[in-house]
Amino acid sequence: MILVVTFYKFVSLPDFAEKQSILLSYCQAQEVKGTILLAKEGINGTIAGLRENVESVLSFLRFDPRLADLEHKESYTDTPPFERMKVRFKPEIVTLGLPEIDPNQQVGTYVSPQDWNELISDPEVTVIDTRNDYEVNIGTFQKAQNPQTEIFRQFPDYVRDNLDPGKHKKVALFCTGGIRCEKASSFLLAQGFEQVYHLKGGILKYLEEVPTEESLWEGECFVFDERVAVRHGLEQVTYERCPNCGNPISNEEKTSPKYELGISCSHCFDSLTEDKRLRLQQKLRQLELAKKRAGEALTPKSNHQRSAQD
Question: Which residue stretches belong to region Disordered (predicted)?
Answer without folding.
Answer: 291-310
